[in-house]
Amino acid sequence: MTPTPTTLSVPLLDLQAQYRAIRDEIHTAIGQVLESQHFILGPEVQALEREIAEYSQCRFGVGVSSGTDALLIALMALDIQPGDEVITTPYTFFATAGVIHRLGAKPVFVDIEPDTYNIDPALIEPAVTPKTKAIIPVHLYGQCAEMNPILDIARRHNLFVIEDAAQAIGAEYQGRRAGSMGTIGCFSFFPSKNLGGYGDGGMVVTQDESLAERLKMLRVHGSKPKYYHSLVGGNFRLDALQAAIVRVKLRHLDEWTAARQRNARTYDALFEEAGLAGTKIKLPAVKQNRHIFNQYVIQVENRDALMAHLKQNGIGTEIYYPVPMHLQKCFARLGYSGGSLPVSEHAANTTLALPIYPELTAEQQEMVVKRIAEW
Ligand SMILES: *Cc1c(COP(=O)(O)O)cnc(C)c1O
Is the CB of 351 under 6 A from ligand 1? Predict the structure, then answer.
């Protein structure tokens, strides 16, 4: 039975709907792991590493415990040290900046492009100092950052590039997949990502065999062989149950991505029809050729009032992200003040993510746009 339009509620994300569609495949995969009683690393993790590497046009994949740990272990493998500087965007999830700080290095924030919300390549080179070791572009909302100029700057100054592709598995920049362009790419299998597990998980990808070996050692406390430690690593292992689940979901990822892209086009058309596009509502700018729409984010003045109105009407939305990194309390000692990175600050005050998950129906999308239009 379809609910009547006036009562139709639209969650930001509906993982139940996806689970119902793949339930049998998932249960079979979990059952096989339980029968094997092999829970840590092992054949399922190895198989997923090969599959994600291939999917992402990379030679090597290393399964890890989360997207955050993927970023941390990437910086550890590249020997980022106290006092080093790492240039990144302030408009991201906390993990991107947090891992830099945790190694004693200094995050250096440069502002973003106003249309894609990705790091502005033109601002990177002026921020390079003799202490700069790496750049971390984030492929925000599922669209790749402008990688060619970033890779050029890195080459000129001999810097590493770590792609934070937590939101962008399968996204492309000029035909090249997210994670394959820099020194190391990092993915997250957090449940709400496009390829989410049923718990925490992540993966690091690279084209460099010796780096892959180093990442594998760091994942098991730096040991090779077992109980002989030439490096200090940590427990950054991916478990077999998550790997088995993610392998099932990887088989569906392209159809889900296509559905997200279709939903994005539907929103674009509905906002056009309602006469809101470009005037009251700024729609997402699609600049790269494969945007995978982890989020569909609009920009609107008076955002908080719109968000409250939608909530009242049963429509889930979220702000990614309300406070840019340079203004987070924990980074106060870095000395940034309000107004120093104005594009990020404006985005933090005006962006709103709408439901875009693959199972979203056209009726639900019409309801979302109708509620925005009436507001
Ligand atoms: C989700 C996310 C992470 C962290 O991934 P976890 O698996 O939650 O640790 C890092 N960076 C970005 C941009 C993310 O969206």
Answer: no
